[in-house]
Amino acid sequence: MNDEFKGKSGKVKVMYVRGEEENRSRGQNPRTGKGGRPAARQEDNRRSGGRRNDDSARKPPRGASESPWRTVSRAPDDENKPDHGGISGKSVIDPAQIRRQRMEETRVYGENACQALFQSRPEAIVRAWFVQSVTPRFRDALRWLAANRKAYHVVDDAELAKASGTEHHGGVCFLIKKRMGMAVSEWLAQAGSKDCVLALEDVSNPHNLGGIMRSCAHFGAKGLLVDDASLLESGAAVRTAEGGAEHVHAISGSSFAEGLAEFRKAGYTIVTTSSHKGTPLAEAVLPEKMVLVLGQESEGLTDTTFQQGDMSLSIGGTGNVESLNVSVATGILLAEWWRQNA
Length: 342
Hints:
Elements: H1 20-26, H2 39-47, H3 54-58, H4 95-104, E1 105-109, H5 111-120, E2 125-131, H6 139-147, E3 151-155, H7 157-164, E4 172-177, E5 182-183, H8 184-190, E6 195-200, H9 206-219, E7 223-225, H10 235-241, E8 249-252, H11 256-265, E9 269-273, E10 279-280, E11 289-294, H12 303-306, E12 311-314, H13 326-341
Parallel strand pairs: 2-3, 5-8, 6-7, 6-11, 7-8, 9-11, 9-12, 10-12
Antiparallel strand pairs: 1-4, 2-4
Helix pairs in contact: 5-10, 9-10, 9-13
């Protein structure tokens, strides 16, 4: 082999020259070997006056039909939509599931209430909102939320009012999983030798419930028999309790009357209250294990519930007002039980 056929690197250069007939069949320039269209396509264009027919317009680019990676567009298929794990705008959202979640969740707010909730049951927190000024006092909560991948937001006052549903949010709001009511049998299995349980008939005002829970926490009454356990988890009730909600537990019977009957069967004294009749509190000897039954401030206890009592109490006073607020009356009655049995 002659050196004149070698390149500068010393490697042999091999050149392929396409024949003239092959060039013409590919529609290429016979001099440069570039450009042009296949002869068959040129002939079609000549016959159609330079326009592609419909079939050729729909043909994919040369080589596309041979590719295993060809992409085919399809109409959206609702059954095959992927779930992207809750990323907004991408997940398939089940309205029934959202309604279920909302029934299981509630918002609590207020600095003392949220601090007590975090100390007692941080795992219940789903999401949190804070204003900047309170974040130094919630440093531990923020660390825990970040470590456990719980969403939290530092927002302005207006945004927090929107998130919590109130202007009286105290700078913080938690979205939490509600606690379910404990069965009477479950409560009785862990009750001590001294136990005062409150039974609330048709008491639903959240501010009264919050005041009652605060008094219960102060005087050691840990159980509340109620028809609807979720009432004790409302934001206004928990905020009014100022942390006391974390020291009491809702108890639920199959009905209010049957719940009282179960406690009586377990040896508890059923104590009812009245503004006009009953033993004056100052003269009463309160049992170590009792269920203290209270009703609405305006109506009091129903006749059926009042007749279930083993003893009845009244709180003496001047008589200038018809009765005391139910949360105030609770505090006075529990203070006397604590004095006698603590």
